[in-house]
Structures are given as C-alpha cells and as structure tokens.
C-alpha cells in the first residue's frame, strides 16, 4: 500500500495538488495546508457539523471525508463564499436575528443554511429545524438561526435557487445508481408494491439506491429463502428480526458511527408476490439514544441470471430511505453509495452461503462499523 497518494482538486475555484497520506482528512488539508480555518474541528466524528464544506455542490462533513476521496472534486469553504450574494444575505439575517453567539458552529451552520435555501426554497420552520439536525449549536437554542433562514427563504423557489448555485460556480454531479430528490413535505411510505423493482418512480425527499446482485442458486430457491425473514436478517450485518405476525414485522438495526452506537427499533409491513417473485417492505424506526428517526422501503425482485447461458439468479434490490435527527446528515453522505454496495456484497455472499449450507458470517448481531467500511473502501480504491 502506498504511503502517499496524488490528490488534485479545486478549492474555492483554485487548483490544488498535493501528496497526501491515504488517511488524511479533507479537514486537515483545508486547515493545515491551505490555512482555510473557517471549517472548524469539532467532534471529528461527523456529528456536530462544524466542519461542513461544499463538495461538488453539496454539504459534506470534511472531518470524515478522506482527501483521496475528494480527488477530482470541487470544494468550497466558507471563505470561498465571501462574494456569494445568497451567503451575504444569510449573514445579514443571522446578524439581525442574533443567530450566533460564540460563533464556533456558524460557518458550518451558514453552509447548511445556504443549502436549505437553494435546495428547498420557501419552507416552514419545522422543516428548517429538521434540516439543521446535523448541525449542533450549544449557545442560541436555534430560534434566531431558524428565524434567519426562514426570512432568507421567504419568496424563494428551488428553481431560482438552482440558478443561484450555477451562478456561484459550484459544480453538481449526478449518478445513475443513486438519486436524491427533495420536497418540503415528503410523503409517508406506502406498503403497495411497485410493478418492478426498477420501475417505481423515485419518492421525493428520499435517497434511493439500486443494487443488482448475482447469486449462484436458481431463482425459485432464492425466492423461497427470501420469504424466510429470519434467515434473511441473518445475512445482513447488524439486522435482527424480533417479531413476525402475518405481513407485520418488527426488528432492530444496529450500527456503529465512530463512538456513537445506534440501534433503530421499528416496525413495518411486508408484501410478497410469488407470481412475479417480487417483495416490498416498508417501515419506520427510531433510535432513542441519538433521537434519530428513519423511514425506509426495500423492493426486491428475483430474476434469472443476466447471462442467459449461466445458472443462478439476479437479485434486483431498490433501497430508499429518509433519516431525521442527529443522523440526518447521512442522507447525503458522499460515500453512501460505496457503503451500500459493500453491504450489498456482504449480504449476497451470506445469502449464497445460506443457500448452500455454508456458515453465515453475520450469524451473531453485530453493529455495522461505518468507519471500518470507509477504510476498506479507501484501501480498495488505492489498490485499483
């Protein structure tokens, strides 16, 4: 494994090229190398939001972002928004409404506030509070902050905001396998199954990822195994089924985020269509420790293998979710697609093992360590 890597990126519109250690944080590069100290060192676990910067047009926690992952990206810090009209409007509103005291959280808070205005336009105070759940302030009680953002949002639309992003020079990117759409009032999940895992329209306000997994067993055998939810839970790291009654299901999902361990406890509904080999599960849960809530939907369909001459099957899975509370920032995490892909690969391997009678590595409930996943993803990228 190399001791340093070449990194090229744009910071506040200026090209930057560095030799960096693989585990160097983006925050370290900004503060220590470039003297851009507006991004503050707070929790260093991606929880407080003080280090928030804009990466490719979206807010991102620089304390949990590796420099190597920012290669080729456009990064904007609070210093790079000195002449941004919308940011100047927000600064003035924060001053009028006393939206800061010690000021430690303010740079990250302003960047998140700018994202709220540009992405959502004129929204309610309740939605603003929800969007701010990933930025912590120990001084103001948030009242002045919310009032300042709501004043700035008044009369604005997301369409006009998109033009403001383009005018500021921020770069935006899209991906074919991950989609995020926002609206002021996202609908509740429905238990009605879609006609196909790939064909259901994306739910506004949620993040959706589609995965295509190749399995060694025949479609009929895979479908029969997936109908046994206790067995399926054993194949997914961190998952646990606690009760099943008809189409009603209860369970937990354990996850480790640095020093913070969360266990979402919730319930949902499952619908199975044996004729099409398709299933839908919708549900919601809450972690009392972090005060975070989650809504989600999983649609899966078992198909013949992609190669018509091959044995086995293809499992098409569409995962959609929406987080609120302290974990809301992970709705738009930069590496979320890689994390889901790695979890999907582990699930597919465990499911294959379960089909053949081999040991399943997640037979005991263990929290998912997101940081371990991030490190393994970075190592695989460096090897490539």
Automatic annotation (TrEMBL):
Organism domain of life: Bacteria
Region (Disordered): 176-204
InterPro entries xref list: 2Fe-2S-bd (IPR002888), 2Fe-2S-bd_dom_sf (IPR036884), 2Fe-2S_ferredoxin-like_sf (IPR036010), 2Fe-2S_ferredoxin-type (IPR001041), 2Fe2S_fd_BS (IPR006058), Beta-grasp_dom_sf (IPR012675), CO_DH_gsu (IPR010419), Diverse_Oxidoreductases (IPR051452)
Listed Low complexity bias regions: 181-202
Keyword Iron: yes
Pfam families with a match to the protein in the record: COXG, Fer2, Fer2_2
Protein name: Uncharacterized protein
Keyword Iron part of the UniProt annotation: yes
């Amino acid at each position: 494994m190399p001791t340093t890597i070449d990194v090229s990126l744009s910071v506040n519109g200026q090209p930057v090229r560095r030799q960096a250690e693989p585990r160097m944080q983006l925050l370290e590069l900004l503060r220590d190398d470039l003297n851009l100290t507006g991004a503050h060192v707070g929790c260093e676990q991606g929880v407080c939001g003080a280090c928030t910067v804009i990466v490719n047009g979206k807010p991102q926690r620089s304390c949990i972002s590796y420099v190597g992952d920012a290669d080729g990206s456009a990064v904007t810090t609070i210093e790079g928004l000195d002449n941004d009209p919308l940011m100047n409007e927000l600064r003035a509103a924060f001053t009028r409404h006393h939206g800061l005291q010690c000021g430690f959280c303010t740079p990250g808070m302003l960047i998140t506030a700018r994202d709220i205005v540009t992405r959502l336009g004129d929204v309610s105070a309740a939605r603003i509070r929800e969007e701010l759940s990933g930025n912590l302030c120990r001084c103001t009680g948030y009242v002045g902050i919310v009032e300042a953002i709501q004043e700035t949002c008044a009369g604005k639309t997301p369409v006009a905001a998109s033009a403001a992003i383009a005018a500021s020079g921020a770069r935006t990117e899209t991906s074919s396998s991950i989609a995020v759409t926002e609206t002021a009032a996202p609908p509740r999940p429905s238990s009605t199954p879609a006609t196909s895992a790939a064909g259901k329209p994306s739910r506004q306000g949620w993040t959706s990822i589609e995965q295509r997994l190749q399995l060694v067993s025949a479609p009929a055998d895979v479908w029969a195994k997936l109908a046994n939810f206790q067995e399926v839970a054993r194949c997914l790291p961190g998952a646990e089924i606690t009760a099943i009654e008809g189409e009603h299901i209860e369970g937990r999902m354990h996850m480790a985020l640095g020093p913070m361990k969360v266990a979402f406890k919730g319930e949902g509904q499952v619908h199975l269509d044996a004729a099409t080999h398709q299933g839908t599960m919708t549900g919601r849960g809450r972690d009392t420790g972090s005060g975070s809530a989650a809504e989600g939907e999983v649609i899966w369909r078992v198909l013949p293998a992609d190669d018509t001459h091959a044995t086995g099957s293809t499992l098409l899975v569409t995962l959609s979710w929406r987080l609120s509370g302290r974990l809301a920032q992970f709705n738009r995490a930069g590496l979320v697609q890689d994390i889901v892909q790695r979890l999907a690969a582990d699930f597919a391997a465990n499911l294959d093992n379960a089909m053949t009678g081999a040991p399943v590595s997640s037979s005991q409930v263990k929290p998912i360590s997101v940081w371990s996943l991030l490190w393994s993803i970075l190592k695989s990228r460096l090897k490539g």
